[in-house]
């Protein structure tokens, strides 16, 4: 299976998980307020620049893996623009060469550079952290 197809399957999986997880009014208020603090009033109108601002904020704060995961799933449910979605999912907050979408699938910490370790992929096979799906 080529890497692009594997990535597309992985991204579809993340979106499916986002919608299965559902969400709540409380989550809408919390994450909506968080984004408003960054100047984003409507997640569906989020731009790539807004996404970069969000990522910069996440990188500079003491956010947990769970917070980032919940935020990303919430954003996916908000139908953010393709450019903003791409900027967020392809980001590499910790600089280890592993995009955020891969960190979410592997269950690794997007704030810890773990480039040289081996991880179990969501497909159930060992992969090198430097290689795609």
Can you give a write-up of this model?
The protein has 133 residues and is mostly helical. It is built from 6 helices and 2 strands. It has helices at residues 3-21, 25-37, 48-60, 65-77, 82-89, 100-106; strands at 118-120, 126-128. It has a two-stranded antiparallel ribbon with strand order 1-2. The longest helix is centred in the first third of the chain and has 19 residues, at 3-21. The protein is globular and about 35 Å long. Mean pLDDT is 81; it is low at 118-133.
Compact overview of the structure:
The protein has helices at residues 3-21, 25-37, 48-60, 65-77, 82-89, 100-106; strands at residues 118-120, 126-128. The chain is mainly α and 133 residues long.
Stretches with pLDDT under 50, minimum 5 residues: 118-133
* Morphology: globular
Report mean pLDDT, rounded to a whole number.
81
Oligomer: single chain
Distance between the termini: 9 Å
Strand content range: under 5%
Q: Report strand order across the widest sheet.
A: 1-2
Helix proportion range: 40-55%
What's the main sheet like?
A: 2 strands, antiparallel
Q: Helical element count?
A: 6
- Number-wise, the strands total 2
Overall SS class: mainly alpha
State Rg. 15 Å
Helix/strand order:
HHHHHHEE
